[in-house]
Design brief:
This protein starts with a strand and ends with a strand. Helix 3 crosses helix 4 and helix 4 runs parallel beside helix 5. The strands form two sheets. Strands 1, 2, 3, 4, 5 and 6 form a six-stranded mixed β-sheet that branches. A three-stranded antiparallel β-sheet has the order 8-7-9. The protein has two domains: 128 residues, Rossmann fold, CATH 3.40.50; 38 residues. It is α/β, with parallel strands linked by helices. The protein contains five helices and nine strands, in the order E-E-H-E-H-E-H-H-E-H-E-E-E-E. Helix content is 30%, strand content 26%.
Length: 177
């Protein structure tokens, strides 16, 4: 989401994932006077280390940090898309809230190094900024039985047909930069 301040300058909106805080964010080239930082409320409970809490305090003192909760509609949309992409089993509740919050702020950027978060964002058309690793392909995950080769969209422990274990596979598609 791009907001305009009273001087008619564009302000970028960044949705912060826990990986951003754990990597000692903020980064001066991303976060400056022309940006807002949004953190889902649920993320506060995930921050445990002294260093990460200190980073969060510095960000909070900057007065551009906003805590919010995503809408129910966005949460449902993210969960449905995560099921169809196969990412649902790799996402935490906090990850889902981060992506859903980005849906509530159209045009915003998610800051995350998490592969599943990045993959889901690519399906939803959400821009992503990273620190060290950015995915190059969008993956759709599925599970295949090692016995009878039946495939499933969602993770289950044992094949209902033959009782064998399932293995995770994916189809990939190049992400346009």
């Amino acid at each position: 989401m791009i907001l305009m301040n009273k001087d008619k300058q564009e302000k970028r909106v960044y949705i912060i994932d826990s990986t951003a805080i754990m990597h000692f964010f903020p980064n001066d080239k991303i976060v400056n006077e022309d940006s807002y930082l949004i953190i889902p409320d649920i993320l506060r409970s995930e921050i445990k280390s002294f260093q990460a809490k200190a980073v969060l305090e510095v960000m909070d003192a900057d007065k551009r940090l906003v805590y919010t909760s995503p809408s129910e509609h966005s949460l449902m949309t993210v969960k449905e898309k995560a099921k169809s992409s196969g990412d649902i089993s790799s996402l935490s509740k906090t990850d889902i809230h981060v992506v859903a919050t980005a849906l509530d702020f159209p045009g915003s950027y998610v800051i995350s190094d998490d592969n599943a978060v990045q993959n889901l964002c690519s399906f939803l058309g959400i821009k992503v900024e990273t620190f060290s690793f950015k995915i190059k392909t969008r993956r759709t995950y599925f599970w295949k039985c090692i016995g009878c080769s039946n495939t499933f969209k969602e993770k289950i422990e044992l094949c209902p047909e033959c009782g064998n274990k399932l293995k995770r596979f994916y189809k990939k598609k190049k992400i346009k930069s």
